[in-house]
Design a protein that fits this description.
Layout: H1 23-43, E1 52-58, E2 67-73, H2 111-131, H3 142-169, H4 171-180, H5 205-227, H6 232-270, H7 278-282, H8 289-305, H9 313-320, E3 342-349, E4 352-359, H10 364-389, H11 424-434, H12 438-447, E5 478-479
Antiparallel strand pairs: 1-2, 1-5, 3-4
Bound molecules: fe (ii) ion (2 copies).
């Protein structure tokens, strides 16, 4: 009898999918493993490969105690294959197969559509590790360094999760796709990653925090949609990935929050009350709030692009065939088929922003994006509460969904963060008011100094309120190896 809660360590690859008795897949994964390690060493964190990092490793899929913390060298991290426990008698939650038993194998008719979705999801996982490759060199503290590496090893595990699905359920094509996932490279001219936001740079730690807050949250929403899949193994793997994803967004939210906190403290100590007095604030060695807002604008809008076109027949097909559901599909009170339902979608027509009701089936992407925006608003409100608590008069805002878009109905539309339509020339002239300029980037870069003394923090960021795994403030989260 297979133990599906605790993880088996009797093969090189920890798993709860019975790999030791599934020789074919075990062999395929073992064949893929050296390439993965090569990729990690060549494209993952630059340096630190010999250092001991205090990391959590998944050792169970029991929600009450699934992880253990210990020092580990990153290349020796136990990346494993973990699926959430099977729900007994699970049914397909939406579309034309509504109510039928969930599939344990991929139905032939949906094979290529399903493979494409798994490959796209899989491609984002190593991409973010590549984007964050150099951040270790400018870590503001050991605590932050450890958090970066935690996020990185878990994105690595998410890649394993998708590779397992490809190798197990998609035969030869799946194995080829698994190899390709290690060949594309974020930002590469010849073989870029599949989605735009995953080819952008993550040049500094504020970008990292914005990325983990906004872009990992897109990841959360995509995983939520796939967790509703009628294809049960995909649903189970995504459900477990969501447990890990929560920490990535925590790193982002608290990272931005600590940056804001430090800025407000420095302003108060210097008696600066005007948050737009940028030169004076920057002279204190902290990042002014308007610049933090620009970073927010950038990462939020890049993340909105990841949801694809507002109206999409591909998305309709994925929903209708039961491959992908809506956010919290089983909790929605409707027919789950969207036979006659409509959904409001905003459009940009002849220089005007209009709202149009379209068949809800075609607006699946838009709905998921709306759910995302609502979810993303929570942290923004908490950042504002922090600013207020510090007595500073400034409010962070999510920009309008038509601002700075490269995909969908608002692609290249000259719309301000407030949602006003202006001329293309005005927009171009005012771009640097809303998005980080080269000078902003240079300034932030100038603050990125490495701090590796336990318990100490770079001047632009406040310490966290609690340690990871309840460790004390001066805990040595990374033991830097003395060469
Ligand atoms: Fe991930
Ligand atoms: Fe993530």
């Amino acid at each position: 009898m297979l133990d599906l809660i605790n993880v088996s360590y009797d093969t090189q690859i920890p798993n709860n999918v019975g790999l030791s008795s599934d020789r074919r897949i075990l062999k395929a994964l073992e064949k893929w493993h050296p390439g993965y390690i090569n990729w990690w060493k060549g494209s993952g964190p630059d340096g630190f490969l010999e250092d001991l990092v205090y990391l959590r490793t998944a050792v169970s899929v029991d929600p009450k105690g699934w992880a253990k913390f210990d020092y580990v060298k990153m290349p020796e991290y136990r990346w494993g294959i973990l699926l959430a426990p099977q729900v007994e008698d699970r049914r397909i939650p939406c579309g034309e197969h509504l109510g039928e038993p969930a599939w344990q194998e991929v139905p032939g008719e949906y094979r290529s559509l399903m493979r494409r979705l798994v490959v796209i999801q899989g491609d984002t996982e190593p991409a973010s590790v590549e984007q964050q490759r150099f951040l270790g060199k400018t870590a503001p503290s050991l605590y932050d360094l450890r958090n970066l590496f935690q996020v990185n090893v878990e994105e690595g595990r998410h890649l394993w999760a998708m590779v397992y699905i490809l190798q197990k359920y998609f035969g030869k094509d799946g194995r080829e796709e698994a190899d390709e996932l290690l060949l594309r490279q974020s930002g590469s001219a010849e073989k870029p990653r599949m989605l735009g936001a995953f080819n952008e740079e993550t040049p500094d730690w504020l970008s990292f925090f914005m990325f983990t807050y906004f872009t990992d949250r897109d990841g959360k929403m995509q995983l939520e949609a796939l967790a509703q899949s009628g294809f049960d193994p995909l649903s189970r793997t995504c459900r477990f990935m969501l447990t890990e994803e929560a920490h990535h967004m925590f790193v982002g939210e608290t990272g931005v929050g600590r940056t804001i906190q430090r800025t407000c403290e420095a302003m108060n100590a210097a008696g600066i009350t005007d948050p737009t007095d940028i030169d004076k604030i920057r002279a204190l060695g902290v990042i002014d709030l308007p610049t933090i807002q620009k970073k927010l604008n950038l990462h939020y809008t890049l993340s909105l692009d990841l949801f694809g076109s507002e109206v999409s027949t591909n998305a309709a097909n994925a929903f209708n065939s039961g491959i992908k559901g809506r956010y919290q599909e089983t909790k929605i009170d409707d027919d789950h088929r969207l036979k006659d339902a409509t959904y409001p979608v905003s459009e940009y027509v002849n220089g005007k922003i209009l709202l149009r009701e379209v068949p809800a089936l075609t607006a699946i992407n838009m709905r998921l994006r709306d759910d995302y925006s609502k979810d993303a608003l929570g942290g923004v409100k908490r950042w504002n509460a922090l600013i207020k608590k510090n007595g500073v008069a400034f409010e962070m805002k999510l920009p309008h969904g038509g601002f700075h878009r490269q995909i969908g109905a608002f692609k290249d539309a000259p719309i301000t963060p407030e949602g006003d339509v202006i001329s293309a020339d005005d927009w171009a002239a005012r771009r640097d008011e809303w998005l980080p300029s080269t000078a902003d980037g240079d300034f932030i870069q100038s603050l990125m100094v490495t701090v590796l003394e336990p318990g100490e923090y770079a001047g632009w960021i406040a310490p966290p309120r609690v340690g990871i795994d309840n460790k004390p403030g001066d805990f040595e989260y990374v033991q830097i190896h003395q060469a």
